[in-house]
Amino acid sequence: MFCEECGTLMADDMLFCPKCGTRAEREEKKVSPEPVQEAVEVTPPEPVQEAVEVTPPEPVREAVEVTPPEPVQEAVEVTPPEPVQEAVAAVPQMPQGQGAVPPIPPVPPIGGQDLTMGKQPGKRSKLPLIIAGIAIIAILAGMLFLVVNLLLGGRGVSSNDTLLYLKDESLYETSVNKIEPMELDDDAYEEAGDGLGDMPTVRYSEDGRYLFYTHHYDGEGMTLSCIDRKEKDAEAVKVDVGTLYYSLTPDNRVLYLKNDALYINDLENKEKISSEVGNFQLSKDGKKVLWLTLEDGKMYVQDTDLKSEKEKLDSDVEGIRYVSDNLDRIVYRKSGSLYLLENLSDKEKIASDVDRVVSVVENGNEVQILYEVVEENEKNILDFVQDDLADKDAAMTEPQEEDYQTTKIVEGWWGPREQVETSDEYYQKMEEYYGKQDRDRLREELSNSVFSVPMSSLCLYDTSSDEITTILEGYMEVSPCYQDRIKVMEGYYEYDSKEKGINGKTLASCTYVSEEVLPKVKFSELFQNGNWFSLESKIEEEIRENSATYLILGSEAVEILDEDRRLDRLSVDQERNKLYAVTCEEEEEGFGNYEIGELVCSGDDIGTYNKLYEDAYRIIGCADGNIVYAKEQASDGSCDLYYNDNRVDSDVDAYTSYLCYDGNLLYGQDKTDEGMMTLKLYDGKETKKIADDVNSCLYFDQNKVVVLADYSTKSMRGDLKIYNGKELEKVDTDVIAIVNTYK
Comparing 77-91, 178-192, 423-437, which segment has the lowest mean pLDDT? Predict the structure, then answer.
């Protein structure tokens, strides 16, 4: 289904749009939109003004400035543009076929990207300088929002040997070290009439005692239940119904949204903290909760013991951009201005008219905030035109027919007579003159037309110096660097979604053209093959072709790559402070000639690009000095899989290949149209086949890999097995799905 508010494609089981936060319209009950979070604009912007299009001989329409599109209620998700290159535009998922339905997302953290309560951000309009790399980063950052929400939000982690799964309507648990399946709840799941129902969102308490999970969507929300794992044969206890999102404190209390109100429940009693809550975030220690109200953007904080009254931190907040673990540092926008709130009391206005925050990076007690200010720069549209036909047209006069006529005597019925003939040259000259008149009309129209061009300033605020540095000024499209890799941990998944810095500095990339070298379009190029071309599109094309790619590291901006090579995406190896780039070349039919290189990010050679691997189009994972990537994509989407310099295998599905926490590589091969595949494991030296016809899996270590195999897409059931390093051990049959737990 599609979001009624913004049109974003949504899974049928989703309660909220992953883009704008609007509640899904369902048959049971229609609900009003609920703005949740503010968007980070990384997509190619809409044209700044209406295209100047003329069809001779009609007069050219005046170029009309168009207000940039209203950002949809801003959400954590970056708006996905149209995929530029299919190979890098898909959403990474663990190997799952039709039987896999993601659970309802838990609480999306307030920080990470702007969270807004429906406020209108500053006016923004940009020429599409964006290149494929930025578009793809946007696509991945946006499309992976669902995965981010699935993996973040809770403080609890599962014990590293626990396996949960669904069979019939029941939730089961077993240890992967000692297979003894135990039914936890016989009413934890309900199949939908057309397939799988709502999958539970599961989290363990920090001490491992309690298991929390959601189930049974009722049109308003989910039932939230809890099991005390310390008590033998303990039955599930219903915490509340109609809940949306939840988060756990270290002392085993649960906070959740219900009917736009925020509640806290200690498993015996519940108390309402506040009404009209759009979203909330717990401090890491669970002692404080931060939230924004839906309508008026009031920002509150309160101790979770509820012994003191809530404290209003500010009002008319448009978006919270960053929140530290213990809420002692909050970056947000208010009335278009950027603020930093420290220790919940010291508020500092950093800058006015801030269009958006690009990146926030903490380094010890210091923080860097990279932000962008955009001013609409109105110019006469002829400032972008080189009139190479001006002299020729000025010298052209209207041809006189008599100058091209001849008289001759011809014989007629009544005898000889005079006949005047006009040569073909006259008609040719008139055609040229008509063209000159059309061009003159176009010049007159354009001379009265204003072209609104956004002039951007990219600035850095550094608390260590309490100074603002203007890094670049000109026409640019800026993209933060997202670390978009799933960490396959011991029995759970972790998705590192936040924008990344490197060496304690903010990190971003941009395409950039300075005002001094703004390119111009030849007037003669606006009229070709009998058609007028859009001047605006020509300007955009010239700017794009003349833009340079820059790497932003803290207060430094360094031009990278050559004019023929474009940046597709960046990936950061946080453990080794290495920065990798996928680059490509722009060709007539799109982008091609992909390769992977390393960008120097320290010392005197910052920005130097060193090519590493040719024909490599996607980085699957990079950590601790290892890099996994895909090469030589085939027509069916499969690839050759590489681990550093070693070719691991062929016919691999790049989007079901993962670098695990222990350095091993888990990947799917020979994927079928139904999503089934052969699952394999590479340990850096050799490859082992784990199982065929795998629907989904869960990795604990190289001797404990859980698979749902022999899966029937008709019945949506399969056999649950554990690979012990040598062979498969059977856990259960007719299993619907592995229930993934997340950190």
Answer: 77-91
pLDDT bucket at 733, cuts 50 / 70 / 90: very high
Closest CA to 560 of 515, 596, 511, 527: 511
Region for residue 335 given its phi and psi (left: phi exceeds 0; alpha: psi -120 to 50; beta: otherwise): left
Q: How far apart are CA 713 and CA 99, in angstroms?
A: 7
Q: What is the mean pLDDT of residues 205-224?
A: 91
Cβ(706)–Cβ(176) below 8 Å? yes
Residues 6 or more apart whose Cβ sits within 8 Å of residue 435: 56, 527
CA of 544: how far to CAs of 132, 198, 365, 458, 638, in Å?
11, 45, 40, 19, 32
CB 628 within 8 A of CB 619: yes
Cβ within 8 Å of residue 82, ≥6 positions away = 135
The pLDDT value given to residue 195: 59
Q: 162 - beta bridge partners? A: 175
Question: Which residues lie below 8 Å from residue 428, measured CB to CB, with a gap of 6+?
Answer: none
Q: Which residues contact 626 (CB under 8 A, 6 or more apart)?
A: 643, 644, 659, 663
pLDDT at 286 over 60: yes
- For residue 609, which of 42, 139, 88, 133 has the smallest C-alpha distance? 133
Q: What is the DSSP letter of 484?
A: -
Please, is 402 exposed, middle or buried when counting C-beta atoms within 10 Å of its C-beta (0-12, 13-18, 19+)?
exposed
CA neighbor of 743 nearest in space, from 150, 19, 85, 87: 150
Neighbours of 646 (CB within 10 A): 10
Confidence of residue 199 (pLDDT cuts 50, 70, 90): confident
Q: What strands lie across the sheet with 329-334, from one edge to the other? A: 317-323, 329-334, 337-342, 346-351
- By DSSP bridging, strand 385-386 and strand 521-522 are parallel
Confidence of residue 60 (pLDDT cuts 50, 70, 90): very low
Q: What is the pLDDT of residue 73?
A: 34
Kind and range of the H or E element at 441?
helix 424-447
The string of pLDDT tens digits covering residues 81-115 is 333 233 322 322 333 333 232 333 344 456 554 54
Q: How confident is the model over 556-574, as pLDDT tens digits?
A: 999 999 878 899 989 999 8
Q: Number of C-alpha atoms within 13 angstroms, CB side, residue 519?
A: 19
Provide the residue count of the chain: 743
Query: What are the residues facing 667 on neighbouring strands?
Result: 657, 680
Ordered DSSP codes for 156-176: ----TTEEEEEETTEEEEEES
Q: Where are the beta strands (DSSP E) in 66-209?
A: 162-167, 170-175, 182-185, 202-204
**Got the DSSP string for 48-75?**
SB------TTSPPPPP-B-PPPPPPS--
End-to-end CA distance of the chain: 28
Query: What is the per-residue pLDDT across 359-412, written as a single tens digit (0 to 9) for each?
Result: 999 988 899 999 999 988 787 888 888 889 999 999 999 999 999 989 888 888
What are the tokens at 402?
A: 């008599």
pTM: 0.74
pLDDT at 248 over 90: yes
Residue 268: is its pLDDT beyond 90? yes
* Alpha helix ranges (H) inside 65-144: 132-143
Per the listing, tokens 């990146």 go with 359
Q: Which of 144, 572, 112, 579 has its CA nearest to residue 359?
A: 112
CA dist 170 and 159 (Å) reads: 21
CA distance linking residue 294 with residue 244, whole number of Å: 15
Residue 180: how many other CB atoms lie within 10 Å: 8
By the 10 Å C-beta count (0-12 exposed, 13-18 middle, 19+ buried), 517 is classed as exposed
- Torsion angle, CA of 588/593/599/604, rounded to 10 degrees? -70
